[in-house]
Design brief:
By secondary structure, this protein is α+β, with helices and mostly antiparallel strands. It is built from 15 helices and eleven strands. The strands form four sheets. A four-stranded mixed sheet has the order 1-2-7-4. Strand 9 and strand 10 form a beta hairpin.
């Protein structure tokens, strides 16, 4: 979707701020460049719709009660499709995104303590340190020279995840990961031929070979780091925690290959989605000086000029609202997994036949006309406690929902609050005059061609 702002929107520093109660439209669901062009407008208005595609019919579930039916109430009836498991298996091996059944449940139990609140609190100081170091680099930028904020957020989140996962500097890992992710994404683009019998197996085999090649250097480094941790246990980074972890029910540890698959999944998915969210946060703030001013006021009141710590995160309520509203409009993964009905079912009064593909699409659910007031407008206040009261739980699903909700959601939110608070205390970001921002949708959703912005000292 083209993310161009409507004609009444301010564009750069020096604009007259809009009236306090006049929200600015950031997106339009009927734009022909939508990242979800195959989804018809009716999906944003009805609970469930049936659509046709080149490979047959599928069902789009937009209503929160329907999302709950698929992700929680009748979750056993809606496993991921074979195509999706194969796709993520090529990228991540047998990690949480690609595994299913008993293997997924065992690994989820084993990994859960590494993402519990005490563990997140232990990772937070490193996040804050990396954000401060990054702020110093931005402070040295020549005035009037735009930077690619999307690229910068990728590098920052790579550094943060490298420290949290491996307790190491992210420079070398970041280069390997960036090359791996870009190569893997190019290798795994899905087309109609991927659904043609016989041809699909040949194409998948080619993908596996290409992805293995682009990840070869990273795999070698991860294997070395695993061997080092096994030889010297007791570390507090995520890799050490996963090596030491045991299933609470069976007492079984993960194998080195399983640890590798989980670490790569977390590393890729964790930094990619967080980098995408942070990029859209800076874009959204640049379009709403009034929102930016409220954020700055909260940062001044809570922090008083000092850098944020993990203890500050619960007190930065408006910062969290900005993050939540940005992820509503620009969910880092705008389409979650496609499920396939094992047996006939009924969702919000619509009959779902056995074998039918069923899609839950956050991009659609977050804009559903029945559950969001002015859904195409950027209004962080909609996530205040008062405004959120009574909102259906499954109307907002940036991290998925149900048993397969993102295991790293708390980690990602802590990281985003700390990064936003650290950088927004020091800088304002503005688009170059006349620059139009469009969306590129692969697995995640990024600004097409990057996000050039001017970094202004506050």
């Amino acid at each position: 979707m083209d993310a161009r702002v409507a004609e009444d929107s301010p564009r750069l520093a020096g604009w007259s701020p809009p009236p306090e109660k006049a929200p600015i439209r950031l997106t339009r669901i009927d734009d022909p460049q939508s990242p979800m062009p195959q989804i018809v407008r009716a999906a944003y208005e009805r609970p469930v719709i049936r659509q046709m595609s080149a490979i047959g019919p599928f069902y789009v579930v937009g209503d929160p009660e329907g999302v709950k039916r698929v992700f929680l109430d009748n979750v056993a009836n809606y496993p991921k499709t074979e195509m999706e498991r194969r796709f993520f298996g090529v990228l991540f091996g047998n990690g949480l995104l690609s595994s299913d059944g008993d293997t997924w449940r065992a690994h989820r139990r084993t990994m859960a303590p590494a993402f519990a609140p005490p563990a997140v609190a232990a990772y937070a100081p490193g996040m804050a340190d990396d954000a401060r170091a990054f702020a110093e680099r931005w402070a040295q930028l020549p005035p009037g020279e735009p930077v690619d904020v999307a690229h910068d957020m990728t590098r920052l989140t790579l550094q943060i995840i490298s420290r949290a996962v491996f307790a190491t500097d992210g420079a070398a890992l970041g280069d390997m990961m960036e090359a791996g992710v870009n190569g893997a994404m190019a290798a795994t683009q899905v087309g109609v031929l991927d659904f043609v019998p016989l041809i699909d197996k040949w194409r998948m085999a080619r993908r596996e070979a290409r992805v293995a090649a682009v990840f070869a250097d990273l795999d070698a480094m991860v294997a070395r780091l695993i061997a080092e941790r096994e030889a010297a246990p007791g570390g507090t980074d995520l890799l050490s925690r996963l090596i030491a972890a045991r299933d609470g029910e069976t007492g079984v540890a993960m194998t080195a290959q399983e640890v590798r698959d989980q670490v790569v999944t977390i590393f890729v998915a964790g930094h990619e989605t967080t980098a995408a969210a942070m990029s859209w946060i800076w874009y959204a703030l640049s379009q709403r000086p009034d929102v930016e001013a409220k954020l700055h006021a909260e940062l001044g009141e809570v922090l008083g000029g000092r850098d944020p710590t993990h203890e500050d995160v619960p007190n930065l309520a408006y910062a969290r609202m900005v993050i939540d509203e940005t992820m509503r409009l620009y969910p880092p993964a705008p389409g979650t997994s496609t499920r396939q009905a094992l047996a006939a079912d009924e969702i919000c009064g619509v009959k779902i036949p056995k074998g039918a593909p069923v899609c839950v699409v956050p991009w659609v659910t977050h804009r559903h006309r029945a559950h969001w007031d002015q859904p195409d407008r950027f209004m962080p206040e909609r996530f205040s406690k008062e405004a959120s009261a009574g909102r259906p739980r499954y109307a907002y699903i940036p991290f998925g929902a149900g048993p397969r909700v993102c295991i790293g959601a708390s980690l990602a939110l802590t990281e985003m609050v700390l990064v936003l608070a650290t950088l927004a205390q020091r800088f304002r970001l503005r688009l170059p005059p006349g620059h139009e921002v469009a969306i590129q949708h692969r697995v995640t959703m990024r600004p097409l061609g990057g996000l050039p912005m001017f970094v202004e000292r506050r």
